[in-house]
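Q: NAD(P)-dependent dehydrogenase (Short-subunit alcohol dehydrogenase family), please. Structure only.
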Amino acid sequence: MTQHTGRTYVVTGTDSGIGAAVAARLADDGARVVRCGITEAADVRADLTTATGRAAAIEQVRVLAPDGLDGVALVAGSPEGRVAVGLNYFGTVALLTALRADLARRPAPRAVVVSSASSLSAGEADLVDACLAGDEPRALAVADRMAARGRGGVVYRSTKIALNRWLRRTAVRDEWAGAGIPLNAVAPGIVETGTARRTLLADPASVRVLRDALPQPLGLPGPVEPVAATIAWLLTPDAGFITGQVIYADGGAEVSLRGEAPFTAGVRYGPVRLARMIGWTVLGRLRTRT
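A: Structure for NAD(P)-dependent dehydrogenase (Short-subunit alcohol dehydrogenase family):
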C-alpha cells in the first residue's frame, strides 16, 4: 500500500492520455491526487469551458483539499474550436488564478500548464489578443468566424500561443514568483494519445504533412510517459528555481524549426531600464571610492 507523503496535487484532464499519466506518476510517488475530468473516475467532474463549471470545479477542489495545494498540473485541453477557446485558455487561466491562493498556503508550491509545440506556428492575432484581453465572448466569436472561413484548425494553436504569452507575463509577477510559486508550461509535440490517434494520426496523408510541419527527430508520434515525467518533475523541489518557461517535450521539433534563431541576438534593454542600470553602476563606483 502506498504511503502518502502529505503532498496534495490537482491534475486536470485525467480521463486519458497525458493527464492520466501525470496523475498516476504523482500517486505512485506517494502524493494525494485530486483528479479532474468528465468521467466517473474523476474526483472532480466539471465542464471547464463555462464559468459555472469552473466555479464548481474550484469549489469541489477546496472541499477535497481544505489545507491547500502543493501543486497544480492543468493538462486538460481540446483541439476543437469553441471548446479549445473555453478550455485551453480561459478555463486554464481561471483555475490557475483562483487556485493561486490555495497554492500560497503551502511551503513549496508549484504550477504547470500544458501548452503545445503547435504554438511554434503562426496563430490568429485577433484570437490571441481577445484571449489576452480576457474577453471570452469576443474570442469565441473570432473562433466561430475562423471556422466559417475554413480556418478552424488554427484556433487550437492560437489558444496555446495566448497561453504561452499569458504565462510569460504572469509568472514573474509578485503574486507568483514574488510569492515563491514557480509557474511553467510543458509543450508536447505529437504523442501517442487516444485523441491524437483519432485525429492527427488517423490519416496517412495527415501524418506526412505533420512530418514537415512539426518534425520530431526522436520519433513521431512520441511516447506519453516522458511528457508526463517532465510535468511531474516541474512539481518537485528540484524545479524550484525555474519559472516562466515553456519547456518543449517535443522530440526535437522546436530546435528543428527554430535552430539557433532565439539566441542569435542578445537582449536589447529599453531606455528606462538602461538608464537605471547605468545609474546603479555609477552609484556603486562612487560608494567603492568612498
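A: Brief note, in case it's useful. The domain at 8-289 is CATH 3.40.50.720 (Rossmann fold).
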